[in-house]
Write a structure and sequence with these properties.
This protein has about 160 residues and is an alpha/beta fold. It has a single domain, classed as Rossmann fold, CATH 3.40.50. About 40% of the residues lie in helices and about 20% in strands. The chain contains six helices and seven strands; from the N terminus they run βαβαββαβαβααβ. The longest helix has 21 residues. About 5% of the residues have low confidence.
Amino acid sequence: MIKRILVAVDGSRHADKAVAMAADIASRLNADLAITHALPQGKLPPELEKLSSKPVPKMPPMSLGGASVDYQVPAAVLKDIAENLLEKAKRKATDAGVNNAATSYHGGEAAQVILDAAKAHRADLIVMGSRGLGELKGLMMGSVSHKVQQLFEGSVLTVK
């Protein structure tokens, strides 16, 4: 029996569909729903920039000794985006009839953030989009959803 569901959100269209699917399942089964977000690292995708009520600084690409340096977004902006994204997802879940929804966000590699959240919430099921806002390098290195499917001991539902 599924009693606890975790859904991962990143602002992508697939993640929005995952929230709708997770909320539908949670409301039908009267399951708890945990919604999590992995704070982005490096340059923000434009879809996430729009979610910030704080100004996102525009910084030119930098390199040190020929190596590129990650674009650093202020923590206050990342927190603002995470809170807005999670509030939107929680509202969607509540509107779908979910009685118990919690939210969380953490920094780190996205797959590990999702796995850690699943463990913390003792999730029976993880629901996530099959593609997020990540760059195409994710196809070469392995997508977040693929890593989660391989490492999570429970069930994973990927949504297109």
